[in-house]
Amino acid sequence: MKRRNFMSLLLAAALAATAVLAGCGNGGSGKATVRIGEVTRSLFYAPEYVAIAKGFFEEEGLNVELTTTPGGDKTMTALLSNVIDVALVGSETSIYVYQQGSDDPIINFAQLTQTDGTFLVAREADDSFDWNSLKGSVFLGQRVGGMPQMAGEFTLKKHGIDPKADLELIQNVDFANIPAAFASGTGDYVQLFEPTASIFEKEGQGHVVASFGTESGLLPYTVFMAKQSYMNKNEKTVQAFTNAIHKAQLWVEENSAEAIADAVLPYFENVDRDILISSIDRYKQQGSFASDPIIDEAEWNNLLDVITSAGELEKRTEHSELVDTSFAENAIEAVN
Fold first, then answer.
1. What is the CATH number of domain 3-115+218-335?
2. Confidence of residue 22 (pLDDT cuts 50, 70, 90)
3. CATH code for the structural domain at 118-216
4. For position 29, what pLDDT does the model report?
5. Is 193 exposed, middle or buried (0-12, 13-18, 19+ CB in 10 A)?
6. What gap in Å lies between CA 30 and CA 290, rounded to an integer?
7. What is the pLDDT of residue 324?
8. Domain-by-domain residue ranges, the chain?
9. Pairwise CA distance, residues 317 & 298, whole Å
10. What is the pLDDT of residue 236?
């Protein structure tokens, strides 16, 4: 998807995002309120929920209002139209907006996840899985231009598979409907986040055969970002927010999957505890949760390589243009 199409989607989604998120206020707490829009509800974002559940935001004098806005386009629309203050979404969205020309760029300030969060799910279990098995298959992928799809294509190419020529790639299913499409019979393979992947395994609808997170390397995959103007006017709030996230990161690193599952259970009321535990353990084992909020340059450059490989980057946007590590650095000094 060309960047002009991405921006068109942002405009088209603006009214819907506003309708979903309108009505956010101070909550009457006297604390500074931060309205967060997350791109999806996933155990991939466990540290975010831990920061809320364990009271780390409150400790920092913040009241947070969390809304899920499925899809990067909708989340970015909400941020651009001031319906939310902070977005939790893939860094690529900030690049797309920047390359359209903006006098108020979206700045990445705190990293939450550092790998791709999707898993390759097959219809049948395969203990001796080989990536070449995908050749000639029907692959139910993610949105064009989004990080899951680009990381997926990057991995396929690394294994000598041309995603456009060696398989039938389906990319016209809305992000929120991909699991249902696979469950109804579309595709031989699908790319899914947790806990959906584990739920499919438990129900016998699919089997995890590989991880795109371990295959595509370290990336600033999901990041907290805000408008430059917001950050300039609310430096103390952004710093407090980053401090709370780092407290949660350290807590997640130091605690078991069972303890984390118990902390985030209120955000996944319809998911069995054993599924929460196995999903979190998968992410912990492959190092998906960032241990600190710093978005480093090496990871940023790997991100640019992935986007370039997908043909979605008009020009390389340097780390210094869209990343501010000062809040993360201060958080590490304050919290550790």
1. 3.40.190.10
2. very low
3. 3.40.190.10
4. 52
5. buried
6. 31
7. 98
8. 3-115+218-335, 118-216
9. 13
10. 97
